[in-house]
Amino acid sequence: LSDRLSGVFERLTKQGALSDEDVKTALREVRVALLEADVSLPVARAFVKAVQDKATGQAVTKSVTPGQQVVKIVHDELVHVLSGDDANPGEMKIDNPPAPILMVGLQGSGKTTTTAKLARRLSQRNGKRVLMASLDVNRPAAMEQLAILGQQIGVDTLPIVKGQTPVQIATRAKQQAALGGYDVYMLDTAGRLHIDDVLMDEVQSVRDVVKPRETLLVVDGLTGQDAVNVAQEFDGKIGVSGVVLTRMDGDGRGGAALSMRAITGKPIKFVGLGEKMDALEEFHPDRIAGRILGMGDIVALVEKAQETIEAEQAERMMKRFQKGQFSMNDLRMQLDQMLKMGGMEGLMGMMPGMGKMKGQMEGAGVDDRMLRRQIALINSMTKRERANPALLQASRKKRIAKGAGLEVAELNKLLKMHRQMADMMKKMGKKGMLKGAMKGMF
Ligand code: GDP
Ligand code: MG
Fold first, then answer.
1. What SUPFAM superfamilies does the database record attribute to this sequence (predicted)?
2. Which ligand is the nearest neighbour of the Cα of 105?
């Protein structure tokens, strides 16, 4: 194993980092993939440019080609742009009952269907009492459509009164929601084939009456380019808090999602995946990214290669530890890891045989601040000193401590700890305990 490994790492150092040329070649293909997925040209251009700056100079994972590596970087960047800063895309502001949710969008985009799907989700999953009302006074049978869906999913709809204006219906829904003790009321508005002033005026006056907590724009995910214009219009005139992309069960590649997010900055909250009432999912940026790029197999390949490398690195490290080769760099890595894992407690608990040391460390007042000071000390050592702490005589110690702004005594403590850990690793290696102990750490 170690023979093969050293060969591999030689290759890695030779292959080194992504060159300008590698990145450019790969990004040409990525650009084509984006445009084919219906991402708008300016967005594709800006996106590729951003990735180019990010990718050049990055290390190439062994056993993948530079091109594959770029694809993975592109994928990660897509996910990043698609998700923005939202941790929970499907979350909605529905406290302070009754919370109005306004559904807007063009005709045929899937507003009525999505209204019912969301109502079902809110009632079944979140246990909310939901009232739905159709404000669509234009299309014959539009109100009945919503009432039928309501019956199907067991959600109340506002009784139909013919001859009322959308604002009158919205007012009635608001009153009914308050009187009936509903948590949420959802207003399904009428759409038009194209955006026009009449539609926008109508939706605006409804908005002003109910002051929606969420205004969700429903967009047909197959419309690509147009979706962005629609989103900009609605956001400018009405103010949109989130987007629902419908028909993502079709074979469109979903580039609209990227354009829309990049241009309007509005979070995509849900995705419609069919006509059935349960065909609604919260937005998963990685799934859409995979679709847009259409190179899911490459992404998976690179991820696998990266995992393998991590496992191999851990194995290599363990072999060294068993031989008692535990450098200051190793120690620093462990300290970093401890910080990441929330301090000493977690890590020490994971390593058998650490119990005694844990007690000692606690006695010595080891905490995160101490970890940071220790890391600073190691950072202040030269490369040679880190590899071979035996070099550290008085003058070097002074220099290192000064560099970290600390006392030599503190450095001595660190050195002692390092020796103890190296000893322990060696002993554990002999007893065959090291592997198990290290498992929890990676
Ligand atoms: P509205 O005019 O915006 O209210 O649109 P509707 O809700 O009436 O939907 C128009 C058509 O699109 C209906 O036949 C729906 O069943 C269908 N539809 C809505 N959402 C989806 C979806 O996510 N996937 C598929 N395949 N069809 C959908
Ligand atoms: Mg409708």
1. P-loop containing nucleoside triphosphate hydrolases, Signal peptide-binding domain
2. 1
